Amino acid sequence: MTDDLDAETLAFAHRMFDLARGGATEELAGYVDAGLPVDMTNEKGDTLLILAAYHAHPATVAALLARGADHARINDRGQTALAAAIFRKNTEAIRALLDAGADPDHGSPSAVETARFFDLPEMLAALGRS
Question: How does DSSP assign the chain, residue by residue?
Fold first, then answer.
């Protein structure tokens, strides 16, 4: 797909992913409100939501969810935004994702599997598991 995009478009897309990584909530939300696809993915299948969750930006996670981001999307490695938030031990992002309906058992590894693999009992508890 990237073969069809010109350099300017690719640079813009990279900038949007950088906004998600950096937690630039208001700026990113403005672009989404102006028509940027909220579920746009990079070359690894990471969505804006997955990147925001992985980089521990709960306000960005909440803003993307409020704009319809698909919490069930998985990247090319089978990971979800919820699993990313669990790995980063970000309870605010976890709560926002769970409140939006994210499934702790979705993905491979799932959020539950991630918490168990990394021996994160407090994250299992955040998922309502033990």
Answer: -GGGS-HHHHHHHHHHHHHHHHT-HHHHHHHHHTT--TT-B-TTS-BHHHHHHHTT-HHHHHHHHHTT--TT---TTS--HHHHHHHTT-HHHHHHHHHTT--TT-BTTBHHHHHHHTT-HHHHHHTT--
The CATH number of residue 40's host domain is: 1.25.40.20
Residue 104: HSE in the Cβ half-sphere, 13 Å Cα cutoff: 20
Q: For residue 58, what pLDDT band results from cuts at 50, 70 and 90?
A: very high
**Dihedral sign computed on CA atoms, order 65, 67, 72, 77:** negative
What's the structural domain count of the chain? 1
Q: What is the pTM (predicted TM-score) of this model?
A: 0.94
